[in-house]
Amino acid sequence: AAGRKLEAKDHVSLVVVCVPPDVTAKAVIQALRDFPAAVVTDVASVKSTVLTELQASDADRTRYVGSHPMAGREKGGTLAGRADLFVGRPWVIAIEEDTVSDSAQTVEQLALDLGSTPIRMSAQEHDHAVALISHTPQLISSLLAAQLASAEDKDLSLSGQGLRDTTRIAASDPRLWLQILSANSGELLPVLKSFEKDLEQVIESLEHVGTTGSLSKLGKVLEAGNLGISRLPGKHGSTNTSYAQVVVMIDDKPGELARLLTEIGAAGLNVEDLNLDHASGAQVGLVELSVLPTIEDKLVSTLRTNGWKLAG
Protein backbone atom coordinates (compact mmCIF):
# COMPACT_ATOMS: atom_id res chain seq x y z
CA ALA A 1 0.00 0.00 0.00
CA ALA A 2 1.05 3.62 -0.49
CA GLY A 3 2.42 5.76 2.33
CA ARG A 4 4.05 4.74 5.59
CA LYS A 5 3.08 4.01 9.16
CA LEU A 6 2.06 7.04 11.22
CA GLU A 7 4.66 8.08 13.79
CA ALA A 8 4.25 10.13 16.97
CA LYS A 9 6.33 12.99 15.54
CA ASP A 10 4.07 13.41 12.49
CA HIS A 11 1.82 16.45 12.25
CA VAL A 12 -1.58 15.42 10.92
CA SER A 13 -3.56 18.21 9.25
CA LEU A 14 -6.18 16.14 7.41
CA VAL A 15 -7.73 12.74 8.08
CA VAL A 16 -9.79 11.03 5.38
CA VAL A 17 -12.13 8.32 6.69
CA CYS A 18 -12.76 5.56 4.11
CA VAL A 19 -14.73 2.80 5.81
CA PRO A 20 -18.11 1.08 5.22
CA PRO A 21 -21.12 3.41 5.64
CA ASP A 22 -22.46 1.74 8.78
CA VAL A 23 -19.31 2.56 10.77
CA THR A 24 -18.34 5.86 9.12
CA ALA A 25 -19.76 8.12 11.84
CA LYS A 26 -17.99 6.18 14.61
CA ALA A 27 -14.70 6.33 12.71
CA VAL A 28 -15.08 10.08 12.14
CA ILE A 29 -15.80 10.71 15.83
CA GLN A 30 -12.76 8.64 16.80
CA ALA A 31 -10.55 10.50 14.31
CA LEU A 32 -11.67 13.87 15.69
CA ARG A 33 -10.60 12.69 19.15
CA ASP A 34 -7.34 11.04 18.09
CA PHE A 35 -6.17 13.97 15.95
CA PRO A 36 -7.24 17.16 17.78
CA ALA A 37 -5.45 19.47 15.34
CA ALA A 38 -6.69 17.84 12.13
CA VAL A 39 -9.62 18.45 9.82
CA VAL A 40 -11.57 15.22 9.33
CA THR A 41 -13.58 14.28 6.25
CA ASP A 42 -15.19 11.08 5.03
CA VAL A 43 -16.11 9.72 1.61
CA ALA A 44 -19.29 7.83 2.52
CA SER A 45 -21.98 7.61 -0.16
CA VAL A 46 -24.70 8.97 2.16
CA LYS A 47 -24.00 12.14 4.13
CA SER A 48 -27.06 12.86 6.30
CA THR A 49 -26.78 9.76 8.48
CA VAL A 50 -23.16 10.55 9.33
CA LEU A 51 -24.01 14.16 10.12
CA THR A 52 -26.93 13.15 12.36
CA GLU A 53 -24.74 10.83 14.43
CA LEU A 54 -22.07 13.52 14.78
CA GLN A 55 -24.64 16.07 15.91
CA ALA A 56 -25.72 13.68 18.67
CA SER A 57 -22.13 13.24 19.89
CA ASP A 58 -19.76 15.55 21.78
CA ALA A 59 -17.23 15.55 18.92
CA ASP A 60 -15.72 18.84 17.70
CA ARG A 61 -17.70 19.35 14.50
CA THR A 62 -15.83 22.57 13.63
CA ARG A 63 -13.12 20.30 12.21
CA TYR A 64 -15.47 17.97 10.31
CA VAL A 65 -16.54 18.41 6.70
CA GLY A 66 -18.31 15.54 4.96
CA SER A 67 -17.44 14.88 1.34
CA HIS A 68 -18.08 12.41 -1.46
CA PRO A 69 -15.99 11.98 -4.62
CA MET A 70 -18.41 11.05 -7.40
CA ALA A 71 -16.11 8.39 -8.80
CA GLY A 72 -15.77 4.71 -8.27
CA ARG A 73 -15.61 1.29 -9.83
CA GLU A 74 -17.64 -1.88 -9.64
CA LYS A 75 -14.48 -3.57 -8.28
CA GLY A 76 -12.95 -3.01 -4.85
CA GLY A 77 -9.63 -3.58 -3.14
CA THR A 78 -6.08 -2.28 -3.52
CA LEU A 79 -5.43 -4.01 -6.84
CA ALA A 80 -8.48 -2.35 -8.39
CA GLY A 81 -7.16 1.13 -7.56
CA ARG A 82 -6.43 3.66 -10.31
CA ALA A 83 -4.29 6.78 -10.05
CA ASP A 84 -6.66 8.73 -12.30
CA LEU A 85 -9.90 7.63 -10.61
CA PHE A 86 -10.83 11.13 -9.42
CA VAL A 87 -9.52 13.16 -12.36
CA GLY A 88 -12.23 15.34 -13.88
CA ARG A 89 -14.93 14.01 -11.53
CA PRO A 90 -17.19 16.07 -9.22
CA TRP A 91 -16.31 15.93 -5.53
CA VAL A 92 -19.15 16.99 -3.25
CA ILE A 93 -18.20 19.08 -0.22
CA ALA A 94 -21.10 18.84 2.24
CA ILE A 95 -21.51 22.34 3.65
CA GLU A 96 -23.87 23.11 6.54
CA GLU A 97 -24.76 26.42 8.22
CA ASP A 98 -22.15 25.87 10.94
CA THR A 99 -19.35 24.58 8.67
CA VAL A 100 -16.05 26.37 9.34
CA SER A 101 -14.70 27.96 6.17
CA ASP A 102 -11.05 26.98 6.75
CA SER A 103 -12.04 23.35 7.29
CA ALA A 104 -14.07 23.31 4.08
CA GLN A 105 -11.20 24.82 2.12
CA THR A 106 -8.84 22.12 3.40
CA VAL A 107 -11.10 19.39 2.03
CA GLU A 108 -11.63 21.30 -1.23
CA GLN A 109 -7.88 21.48 -1.69
CA LEU A 110 -7.67 17.69 -1.35
CA ALA A 111 -10.22 17.35 -4.15
CA LEU A 112 -8.30 19.80 -6.34
CA ASP A 113 -4.98 18.05 -5.67
CA LEU A 114 -6.52 14.80 -6.97
CA GLY A 115 -7.84 16.47 -10.12
CA SER A 116 -11.49 16.65 -9.08
CA THR A 117 -13.95 19.54 -9.26
CA PRO A 118 -15.26 20.52 -5.79
CA ILE A 119 -19.01 21.16 -5.62
CA ARG A 120 -20.59 22.59 -2.48
CA MET A 121 -24.02 21.42 -1.33
CA SER A 122 -25.69 20.36 1.90
CA ALA A 123 -25.79 16.76 3.09
CA GLN A 124 -29.53 16.58 2.34
CA GLU A 125 -29.06 18.01 -1.17
CA HIS A 126 -26.33 15.45 -1.82
CA ASP A 127 -28.44 12.52 -0.65
CA HIS A 128 -31.39 13.70 -2.76
CA ALA A 129 -29.18 13.91 -5.87
CA VAL A 130 -27.41 10.56 -5.50
CA ALA A 131 -30.71 8.75 -4.94
CA LEU A 132 -31.50 9.52 -8.59
CA ILE A 133 -28.13 9.56 -10.31
CA SER A 134 -26.34 6.77 -8.43
CA HIS A 135 -28.47 4.61 -6.15
CA THR A 136 -31.43 4.04 -8.48
CA PRO A 137 -29.17 3.10 -11.44
CA GLN A 138 -27.44 0.55 -9.20
CA LEU A 139 -30.75 -1.10 -8.30
CA ILE A 140 -32.01 -1.12 -11.88
CA SER A 141 -28.73 -2.57 -13.13
CA SER A 142 -28.86 -5.31 -10.48
CA LEU A 143 -32.49 -6.14 -11.25
CA LEU A 144 -31.73 -6.45 -14.96
CA ALA A 145 -28.61 -8.55 -14.35
CA ALA A 146 -30.60 -10.84 -12.05
CA GLN A 147 -32.73 -11.82 -15.06
CA LEU A 148 -29.58 -13.22 -16.69
CA ALA A 149 -28.97 -15.76 -13.92
CA SER A 150 -31.56 -18.18 -15.31
CA ALA A 151 -31.20 -17.26 -18.99
CA GLU A 152 -30.26 -19.82 -21.64
CA ASP A 153 -26.61 -19.81 -22.73
CA LYS A 154 -27.68 -19.53 -26.37
CA ASP A 155 -29.61 -16.36 -25.54
CA LEU A 156 -26.68 -14.83 -23.67
CA SER A 157 -24.38 -15.58 -26.61
CA LEU A 158 -26.25 -12.90 -28.57
CA SER A 159 -25.59 -10.17 -26.00
CA GLY A 160 -23.70 -7.07 -27.01
CA GLN A 161 -22.39 -3.81 -25.65
CA GLY A 162 -25.84 -2.50 -24.74
CA LEU A 163 -26.42 -5.23 -22.17
CA ARG A 164 -22.90 -4.88 -20.81
CA ASP A 165 -23.30 -1.12 -20.45
CA THR A 166 -26.55 -1.42 -18.52
CA THR A 167 -25.38 -4.23 -16.21
CA ARG A 168 -21.73 -3.31 -15.55
CA ILE A 169 -22.33 -1.84 -12.10
CA ALA A 170 -24.35 -4.91 -11.08
CA ALA A 171 -20.97 -6.50 -10.32
CA SER A 172 -20.62 -4.19 -7.29
CA ASP A 173 -20.38 -5.54 -3.73
CA PRO A 174 -23.91 -6.39 -2.46
CA ARG A 175 -22.87 -5.97 1.19
CA LEU A 176 -21.72 -2.40 0.60
CA TRP A 177 -24.84 -1.52 -1.35
CA LEU A 178 -27.15 -2.90 1.32
CA GLN A 179 -25.69 -0.31 3.68
CA ILE A 180 -25.89 2.52 1.15
CA LEU A 181 -29.47 1.83 0.06
CA SER A 182 -30.79 1.41 3.59
CA ALA A 183 -29.06 4.59 4.75
CA ASN A 184 -30.64 6.64 1.94
CA SER A 185 -34.03 4.92 1.79
CA GLY A 186 -35.93 8.12 2.53
CA GLU A 187 -34.60 9.85 -0.60
CA LEU A 188 -34.56 6.68 -2.70
CA LEU A 189 -38.16 5.58 -2.28
CA PRO A 190 -39.80 8.54 -4.11
CA VAL A 191 -37.53 7.94 -7.12
CA LEU A 192 -38.35 4.23 -7.16
CA LYS A 193 -42.08 4.92 -6.90
CA SER A 194 -41.85 7.28 -9.88
CA PHE A 195 -39.95 4.58 -11.79
CA GLU A 196 -42.60 2.04 -10.76
CA LYS A 197 -45.32 4.28 -12.18
CA ASP A 198 -43.55 4.51 -15.54
CA LEU A 199 -42.91 0.77 -15.60
CA GLU A 200 -46.58 0.07 -14.91
CA GLN A 201 -47.43 2.33 -17.86
CA VAL A 202 -45.11 0.33 -20.11
CA ILE A 203 -46.57 -3.00 -18.96
CA GLU A 204 -50.13 -1.78 -19.42
CA SER A 205 -49.36 -0.51 -22.93
CA LEU A 206 -47.83 -3.82 -23.97
CA GLU A 207 -50.71 -5.80 -22.48
CA HIS A 208 -53.14 -3.83 -24.65
CA VAL A 209 -51.15 -3.37 -27.86
CA GLY A 210 -54.29 -3.57 -29.98
CA THR A 211 -56.11 -0.91 -27.96
CA THR A 212 -56.32 2.60 -29.38
CA GLY A 213 -53.78 4.88 -27.73
CA SER A 214 -51.70 2.17 -26.07
CA LEU A 215 -48.69 2.65 -28.33
CA SER A 216 -48.98 6.41 -27.92
CA LYS A 217 -48.55 6.02 -24.15
CA LEU A 218 -45.56 3.73 -24.67
CA GLY A 219 -44.08 6.23 -27.09
CA LYS A 220 -44.33 9.01 -24.52
CA VAL A 221 -42.26 6.95 -22.08
CA LEU A 222 -39.57 6.41 -24.73
CA GLU A 223 -39.62 10.09 -25.70
CA ALA A 224 -39.21 11.06 -22.05
CA GLY A 225 -36.07 8.93 -22.06
CA ASN A 226 -34.73 10.91 -25.02
CA LEU A 227 -35.36 14.13 -23.13
CA GLY A 228 -33.69 12.84 -19.99
CA ILE A 229 -30.52 11.65 -21.70
CA SER A 230 -30.22 14.99 -23.51
CA ARG A 231 -29.94 16.75 -20.15
CA LEU A 232 -26.84 14.88 -19.02
CA PRO A 233 -23.70 17.06 -19.14
CA GLY A 234 -21.37 16.44 -22.05
CA LYS A 235 -17.58 16.58 -22.11
CA HIS A 236 -16.03 18.94 -19.55
CA GLY A 237 -19.51 19.71 -18.18
CA SER A 238 -20.70 21.32 -21.41
CA THR A 239 -24.09 20.85 -23.06
CA ASN A 240 -24.59 17.31 -24.30
CA THR A 241 -23.52 17.02 -27.95
CA SER A 242 -24.75 14.62 -30.63
CA TYR A 243 -21.88 12.66 -32.16
CA ALA A 244 -21.49 10.57 -35.27
CA GLN A 245 -20.51 6.92 -34.73
CA VAL A 246 -18.00 5.08 -36.89
CA VAL A 247 -17.43 1.37 -36.15
CA VAL A 248 -14.06 -0.12 -37.06
CA MET A 249 -13.17 -3.82 -37.11
CA ILE A 250 -9.74 -4.61 -35.65
CA ASP A 251 -7.85 -7.86 -35.16
CA ASP A 252 -7.88 -9.06 -31.54
CA LYS A 253 -4.13 -8.87 -31.06
CA PRO A 254 -1.67 -6.59 -29.22
CA GLY A 255 -1.08 -3.11 -30.63
CA GLU A 256 -4.04 -2.90 -33.01
CA LEU A 257 -6.10 -0.43 -30.98
CA ALA A 258 -3.04 1.74 -30.36
CA ARG A 259 -2.23 1.73 -34.08
CA LEU A 260 -5.79 2.75 -34.95
CA LEU A 261 -5.80 5.69 -32.55
CA THR A 262 -2.29 6.75 -33.57
CA GLU A 263 -3.29 6.93 -37.24
CA ILE A 264 -6.42 8.92 -36.38
CA GLY A 265 -4.33 11.37 -34.34
CA ALA A 266 -1.76 11.67 -37.13
CA ALA A 267 -4.58 12.79 -39.44
CA GLY A 268 -5.41 15.61 -37.02
CA LEU A 269 -8.76 14.11 -36.03
CA ASN A 270 -10.13 14.03 -32.48
CA VAL A 271 -12.09 11.12 -31.03
CA GLU A 272 -14.62 12.32 -28.45
CA ASP A 273 -15.34 8.86 -27.04
CA LEU A 274 -15.00 5.17 -27.88
CA ASN A 275 -16.48 1.81 -26.96
CA LEU A 276 -14.77 -1.52 -27.48
CA ASP A 277 -16.66 -4.76 -28.01
CA HIS A 278 -15.76 -8.22 -29.28
CA ALA A 279 -17.48 -9.96 -32.15
CA SER A 280 -19.14 -13.19 -31.06
CA GLY A 281 -17.29 -16.29 -32.27
CA ALA A 282 -14.49 -14.37 -34.01
CA GLN A 283 -11.07 -12.98 -33.03
CA VAL A 284 -12.19 -9.50 -33.98
CA GLY A 285 -12.79 -6.36 -31.96
CA LEU A 286 -15.39 -3.73 -32.80
CA VAL A 287 -14.34 -0.18 -31.94
CA GLU A 288 -17.15 2.37 -31.97
CA LEU A 289 -15.66 5.84 -32.41
CA SER A 290 -17.72 8.90 -31.47
CA VAL A 291 -16.72 12.05 -33.36
CA LEU A 292 -18.18 15.41 -34.26
CA PRO A 293 -20.42 15.09 -37.35
CA THR A 294 -18.27 17.66 -39.16
CA ILE A 295 -15.29 15.29 -39.32
CA GLU A 296 -17.14 12.02 -39.91
CA ASP A 297 -16.52 11.92 -43.67
CA LYS A 298 -12.83 12.74 -43.27
CA LEU A 299 -12.45 10.04 -40.62
CA VAL A 300 -14.14 7.41 -42.81
CA SER A 301 -11.95 8.38 -45.77
CA THR A 302 -8.78 8.28 -43.67
CA LEU A 303 -9.59 4.87 -42.21
CA ARG A 304 -10.39 3.33 -45.58
CA THR A 305 -7.23 4.79 -47.11
CA ASN A 306 -5.19 3.22 -44.32
CA GLY A 307 -6.79 -0.17 -44.91
CA TRP A 308 -9.16 -0.38 -41.96
CA LYS A 309 -12.41 -2.30 -42.41
CA LEU A 310 -15.54 -0.46 -41.33
CA ALA A 311 -18.67 -2.15 -40.04
CA GLY A 312 -22.06 -0.99 -41.24
List keywords for this structure.
about 300 residues; alpha/beta; Rossmann fold; Alpha-Beta Plaits; four-stranded antiparallel β-sheet; three-stranded mixed β-sheet; globular
Could you please describe the fold and organization of this structure?
By secondary structure, the chain is α/β, with parallel strands linked by helices. Among the domains are: 14-121, Rossmann fold; 244-311, ACT domain (Alpha-Beta Plaits), CATH 3.30.70. The protein has 11 helices and 9 strands. The strands form 3 sheets. It has a 4-stranded antiparallel sheet, covered by helices on one side. Strands 3-4-5 form a 3-stranded mixed sheet. The protein has a two-stranded parallel sheet with strand order 1-2. Helix 1 (21-34) packs across helix 2, helix 4 packs across helix 8 and helix 8 (185-207) packs antiparallel against helix 9 (214-230). The mean pLDDT is 91.
Radius of gyration: 24 Å
User: Can you say what the CATH homologous superfamily of the domain at 14-121 is?
Assistant: NAD(P)-binding Rossmann-like Domain
The averaged pLDDT comes out at 91
Q: Show unreliable segments.
A: none
Question: Separation of termini?
Answer: 47 Å
Order of helices and strands: EHEHEEHEHHHHHHEHEEHE
CATH topology of the domain at 14-121: Rossmann fold
**Structural class computed from helices and strand pairing:** alpha/beta
Level-2 CATH architecture of the domain at 14-121: 3-Layer(aba) Sandwich
Describe the structure concisely for a colleague:
The chain has 312 residues and is of the alpha/beta class. It has helices at residues 21-34, 48-55, 101-113, 123-146, 153-156, 161-167, 174-183, 185-207, 214-230, 256-266, 296-305; strands at 14-17, 39-42, 66-69, 90-94, 117-121, 244-251, 273-278, 284-291, 309-311. Among the domains are: 14-121, Rossmann fold (3-Layer(aba) Sandwich); 244-311, ACT domain (Alpha-Beta Plaits, 2-Layer Sandwich), CATH 3.30.70.260.
